[in-house]
Each structure stands twice: as structure tokens, then as C-alpha cells.
Amino acid sequence: MKAFERDHKVKYLGYFDGFTQYIPLSVTVAGMTEIVDLLSNPGQNSDQIKNAIYELWLTTKHEKLSEDDRTNLLAIYFTKLKMYPPQSVAFVLRDFGDTSHFFPSWAEIKIVLDQHSGWRNQLIRCLRAVATQGTSK
Predict the structure, then answer these.
(1) Please, which residues bridge with residue 20 across strands?
(2) Residue 136 confidence (pLDDT)
(3) Are 54 and 74 in contact (CB under 8 A)?
(4) Count of alpha carbons within 13 Å of 120, Cβ hemisphere only?
(5) Long-range interactions of 75-82: CB distance < 8 A, separation 24+
(6) In a 3-state reduction of DSSP, which class is residue 14?
(7) 98: Cβ–Cβ under 8 A, 6 or more apart, which residues?
(8) pLDDT digit string (tens) for 30-88?
(9) Buried-exposed string 17-32: b where 16+ CB fall within 10 A, e elsewhere
(10) Is residue 88 a contact partner of residue 52, using CB atoms and an 8 Å limit?
(11) Least confident piece of the model among 85-89, 92-96, 109-113, 133-137
């Protein structure tokens, strides 16, 4: 592996998403830190997330709640969903709306979202590890 890294001017990043991943040596620690920040704070498009959760609420059956309880429930879901990329949230919630009769629990949504965007968390961990190694030399 060291010969491959030397020949291709890359550094081992980690094994995730089914493949061994490398990062070019030209990527700086500052660049890796910026990427980690962008990946770690995906909730840039809150309207897309709000629309997706509201559409799911309208297209599935759910227990009857007071307006305050419904607002609080959707606010809790929204807060948790902001931790995921908006495109993943929209895709997963649309799929739930198309395939589920009932409004899903947070646990059900989280399982699917984690499967859908798990590579992102692995990438973040690997970039942090490589960036940390780069600063300790």
C-alpha cells in the first residue's frame, strides 16, 4: 500500500462505502477541515426539510393530535432531520410517504437515513483522522 501511495501521490483515507479510499497529498489540513465542516453541518436548506416532513404528515395516517402537539412533534422531527443532508431527507421522507400507510416513528426514519447517508459519517471520521495525523508531524 505504501508503494501505491507513493506512486500515485495519495494518502490512505479509509475503507468505506465498499472501497478503499485515498486522498491526494495536495489536499491540505485546512482543506480537509473545511470539507469536514461542510459535511458536518448539512442543514443549509431548511425549507426543503420542512416541506418534506409536512408532505409526509399530509400523506400518511397518524393519531389525532391537538394543533400544539402536532406543531411540537413536527418541530422535534425537524430539529433531528437538520442533522442530515436535505436531499437525503427529502428522498427518504418521500419514499416513506409513497410506501407507508402510517406516519413513521423517529426510529424508523433514523434507520433509513443512517443507511442512506452512512458513508458521509465514515468520510467525516476518516478525514478527521487524516487531518489529525497531519498536524502531529
Answers:
(1) 15
(2) 47
(3) yes
(4) 18
(5) 76/106, 77/53, 77/106, 77/109, 78/46, 78/49, 78/50, 78/53, 80/106, 80/110, 81/49, 81/52, 81/53, 81/109, 81/113, 82/42, 82/43, 82/46, 82/49
(6) strand
(7) none
(8) 888 887 777 766 555 688 889 999 999 999 999 899 999 999 999 999 988 887 878 88
(9) eeeebbbeeebeeeeb
(10) no
(11) 133-137
How far apart are alpha carbons 137 and 133 in whole angstroms? 7
pTM attached to this predicted model: 0.62
The H-assigned helical ranges of 1-137 are 2-8, 29-40, 46-59, 67-81, 86-99, 106-135
Q: For Cα atoms 11, 17, 18, give the angle at the middle one, nearest 5 degrees.
A: 90
Cell numbers for 112: 433509513
The answer to whether the beta carbons of residues 22 and 28 sit under 8 Å apart is no
The mean of the pLDDT values for the chain is: 85
Average pLDDT rounded to a whole number, residues 5-17: 86
What is the C-alpha separation between 6 and 30, in angstroms, rounded?
Answer: 22
Task: Pick the closest to residue 48 from 13, 78, 17, 68 (CA basis).
Answer: 78
Residue 126 has pLDDT above 90, yes or no: no
